[in-house]
Amino acid sequence: MKAFTLDHAADAQDALDALGAGATAIAGGTNLVDLMKLQIAAPDRLVSIRRTGLDQIAPDGEGLRIGALVTNADCAADGRVRRDWPLLAQAILAGASPQLRNRATTGGNLCQRTRCGYFYDTTQACNKRAPGTGCGALGGFNRIHAVLGTSDACIATYPGDMAVALLALDAEVLTQGPDGERTIPVGQFHRQPGDDPSRDNTLLPGELITGVRLPAPSGGMQIYRKVRDRASYAFALVSVAADLAMEDGRIARCALAFGSLGTVPWRDRAVEQALVGETPSPALFDKAADVLLRDARGFGENDFKIVLARRALAATLAEATLSNPAKG
């Protein structure tokens, strides 16, 4: 690991001053430290934000504000989250290991790098790690790679679970930077690779995540389904986050987000529009999958993800509609 200096910010403004001077923020370090060990990330100066007081969960109107330094474990265990936003708790508990969840933070989880094996292997071509070198996954081993939102520059999937649930819940990312505070819908936080996969999100230079805001509880049935090669400690092959309500035997409201299908946490409102107002049926679920996957593109070894996504969506919708008490 390259030598670096480490400072400890006393508060958010102290952290912003350090970031403005070129420092890199570190909280739990569950992703950044790995990258530093491999010298994929090689910052000269780190600033720890662990002492900035951003580790609280508090009411925010009818919603909830989760501080950027709240650990994944504490967020998933919070009684308010488990009661009113169970989708978020389910997604967090489906990810990583207990040790990592005890260390990883809300802000850090959102900022984890979109990555694959070629990103980690410095002997291989990777436009994300070394712009202009190419993408080894395009013609290489790409079984876990994306089928939506890809480009000729990168086909890596965003690997997290928490952000997929936040996307379905219409959460917002709260930031503070040199130009003041910003509120960023989760759906606008992560960047598709385009021709510049080196940038994973829309944070500005010197900007710091201070928290996440959850809107008022929806009261619907919330389900997080994660399909993976083994039952724990594995990234998803496909995941589905659903928040759905029924009325008079029809789908009255539906929010769906998908993980490990796209280069970013994926939400397509057209899929939801195809479902709302309709009576649940296998044919309807198949129609929704057609909408979701209309632009999907496999790269050989990951072609199976397109079929898997169709089945995962159908299973999630069947569970949500059968378990959801109809109103009226």
UniProtKB/TrEMBL annotation:
PANTHER family recorded: ALDEHYDE OXIDOREDUCTASE FAD-BINDING SUBUNIT PAOB, XANTHINE DEHYDROGENASE SUBUNIT C-RELATED
Molecular-function GO terms, alphabetical = FAD binding; oxidoreductase activity
Question: InterPro entries per the record?
Answer: CO_DH_flav_C (IPR005107), CO_DH_flav_C_dom_sf (IPR036683), Diverse_Substr_Oxidored (IPR051312), FAD-bd_PCMH (IPR016166), FAD-bd_PCMH-like_sf (IPR036318), FAD-bd_PCMH_sub1 (IPR016167), FAD-bd_PCMH_sub2 (IPR016169), Mopterin_DH_FAD-bd (IPR002346)
* Entry-linked PROSITE patterns: FAD_PCMH
Q: Which organism is it from?
A: Novosphingobium olei
Q: What is the lineage of its organism?
A: Bacteria, Pseudomonadati, Pseudomonadota, Alphaproteobacteria, Sphingomonadales
- Asked if the Swiss-Prot or TrEMBL record annotates the protein with the keyword Membrane, the reply is no
Keywords annotated in UniProt: FAD, Flavoprotein
All residue ranges annotated as the FAD-binding PCMH-type domain in the record: 1-219
Identify this protein by name: Xanthine dehydrogenase family protein subunit M
UniProt key word Secreted:
no
Entry-linked Gene3D superfamilies = 3.30.465.10, CO dehydrogenase flavoprotein, C-terminal domain, Uridine Diphospho-n-acetylenolpyruvylglucosamine Reductase, domain 2
